[in-house]
Amino acid sequence: MPRIAEARQPAEPTSAEQKDRYRRILRAASKLGAEHGLERMQMNDVAKEAGVAIATLYRYFPSKTDLFVGVLHSQIQRLSAAGAGAGSAAPVGSGRRADAVADVLIGAGQRMLERPQLATAMLQANNAAQLQGGREYTEANAAFHRVLLAALGVPEPEDEDYRMVRITEQTWYGVLVSVLNGVITAEQADADIRLATRLLLGPRYDGTGAAS
User: Which residues cross the membrane (predicted)?
Assistant: First the structure.
């Protein structure tokens, strides 16, 4: 009976040249994903657009799922860098820490929704990656949680803090899917996200009532 091959873990770029190729691949995937979505985009076209061999593409991203999780991870890294530049734990406006998280999520959602086909591809890939695990998904997930915890002003998170940001993240994903499916408008999504963060995070981190 033939042995089923184990899924190969993506390689990680180490040299400057490898990192440059890696970034070109992500840019190409973002461009083509925005034009064609997950299903219609072809890996050969990504390799051609990025100017790399198809073997190089598959070395870093063995599947389209890995590739679009990588694109999502790169966007989260930019979000993290922007937050670090602005300073962490910076609740503005209302002064509520829940609103600081809402600001991050609303801003990230608005940027994603500017390219709906790419946003759909990233969310589809993220859902599939939950079943597979893997380095790229684990790192992307952890990076996003760090961004939210920094906005929340929690430098030394405990298990309950991780649980709260995880639930908040899952709610945000659901709201984005509703927009992409045409169930609600982008404006309604922004209001829903702000309400959700106040309901979920306000009592613990701001000492507020449920929807105050």
Answer: none
Residue 169 has pLDDT above 50, yes or no: yes
Give, in order, the Cα–Cα distances in Å from 200 to each of 80, 99, 139, 171.
Answer: 22, 11, 24, 10
Sequence-ordered list of residues with C-beta below 8 angstroms from that of 40, at least 6 positions apart, any chain: none
CA atoms in the 13 A half-sphere facing the CB of 145:
19
**Alpha-carbon torsion, ordered 90, 92, 94, 98, to 10 deg:** -40
* DSSP calls for 158-178: -HHHHHHHHHHHHHHHHHHHH
* Number of structural domains in the chain: 1
CATH code for the domain of 70: 1.10.357.10
Its domain, for residue 135, covers 64-206
- Tokens representing 153 are 């002003």
Q: Which of 165, 172, 189 is nearest to 72 (CA)?
A: 172
Q: How many residues does the chain have?
A: 212
Dist. CA 93–CA 100, nearest whole Å: 9
Is position 37 within any domain?
no
pLDDT of residue 23: 96
